[in-house]
Design brief:
By secondary structure, this protein is mainly alpha-helical. Helices cover 71% and strands 3% of the residues. The chain has 15 helices and four strands. Helix 2 (36-59) runs antiparallel to helix 10, helix 2 runs antiparallel to helix 12 (267-275) and helix 11 packs across helix 12 (267-275). The longest helix has 27 residues, at 211-237. It starts with 14 loop residues before the first helix and ends with a helix.
Length: 324
């Protein structure tokens, strides 16, 4: 299915769709009028949206990366080191981190994209652990297990994003931009080619599409989005360490994508909005967090294979049938 459920019928918005848009707008504006804790959760949600959207671009092409946090780490460390050792400002340093990550993804993808299924997943997991161990052992440049502290806040055009409220505005703009980017890609011929490769690579190859080139572009683009999220996260938290990018973080990104909807441009947004605040709600019951996540994932896969983004699908199908 290449048409996304939440995108169907956009030419003639229904009242329910307008309510959804209003609810999203209210959710976006509310943190500015809430306390610091809500603003903190809102910033983390926006950063997760950006990172999970990168994973969605890779998954849309039929692959699943279990080392996505490694590319977040490369972007974060690359931007921080460029700022510290080269004296670059926030934007050039962030672009450097994204560029380094894109080159790493390009080199890795050229080697491993011929692998399918569980083999691709295992190699990406191994790559994620390799990056984490390299950061732990590289104490001279990465700070080792202690990480790098004292990272300066983001600054653009003389505006310093040194408060939660101001940084939330930056994170929200970037997160919505990533959703718009996915929507634009989905409507373009390249997006249709990605869907064709995901559905049947052999058939797509027989029609003249270069499966490896399309998968490589998706991998590089998805990792670049993850790197941008990592660079922003480093500036917001003011600290990076290898343990901030371990395998459990990659798994949490996958869970967000699956629960939100891995074939929808809204999947990353919905998954991050639902799952980012949950650890705070379950802070008093740490041991049950993983049980809840596992149960939620099983229920979603069983009853909502399209994720939460697919909920309006049956209603929209009924509405189109009644209008005919």
């Amino acid at each position: 299915m290449t048409v996304l459920s939440l995108e169907a019928g956009m030419a003639r918005p229904a009242p329910v769709q307008w309510l959804l848009w209003l609810a999203l707008a209210a959710a976006a504006v509310t943190p500015w009028f809430a306390g610091p804790f809500v603003q903190h959760l809102a910033v983390l949600t926006c950063l997760n949206v950006l990172i999970v959207n990168g994973l969605a671009l890779i998954a849309r092409c039929g692959q699943l990366s279990l080392g996505h946090a490694a590319f977040v780490a490369v972007g974060a460390y690359g931007s921080v080191l460029a700022a510290r050792h080269l004296g670059w400002s926030f934007l050039p340093a962030t672009l450097a981190g994204v560029a380094i990550t894109a080159v790493v993804a390009l080199a890795l993808g050229a080697i491993i994209l011929r692998l399918k299924g569980v083999y691709f997943v295992l190699v990406t997991f191994a790559f994620g652990e390799l990056v984490r161990l390299a950061l732990l052992d590289g104490a001279s440049w990465s700070g080792g297990a202690n990480g790098i502290a004292g990272i300066l806040p983001a600054e653009l055009a003389g505006w310093v994003f040194d408060s939660r409220a101001s940084f939330y505005g930056l994170a929200l703009a970037v997160a919505l931009g990533s959703v718009a980017l996915l929507a634009a890609v989905a409507r373009r011929p390249f997006g249709h080619a990605i869907d064709a490769v995901a559905e049947n690579p052999a058939l797509a190859e027989s029609t003249g599409l270069s499966v490896q080139r399309i998968q490589l572009c998706s991998l590089v683009g998805g990792c670049a989005l993850a790197a941008a999220g990592g660079a922003l996260q480093a500036r917001y938290v003011g600290y990076v360490s290898p343990e901030s990018f371990n395998a459990s973080i990659s798994i949490s990104f996958i869970i967000m994508l699956v629960i939100g909807g891995r074939r929808s441009v809204w999947g990353g947004l919905i998954g991050a909005m639902v799952l980012t605040p949950l650890p705070e709600l379950f802070r008093g019951a740490v041991q049950t967090q993983h049980i809840f996540y596992g149960a939620a994932l099983i229920l979603i896969l069983r009853f909502l294979p399209a994720g939460l983004a697919g909920l309006p699908g049956p209603w929209q199908a009924r509405r189109r049938k009644e209008s005919q």
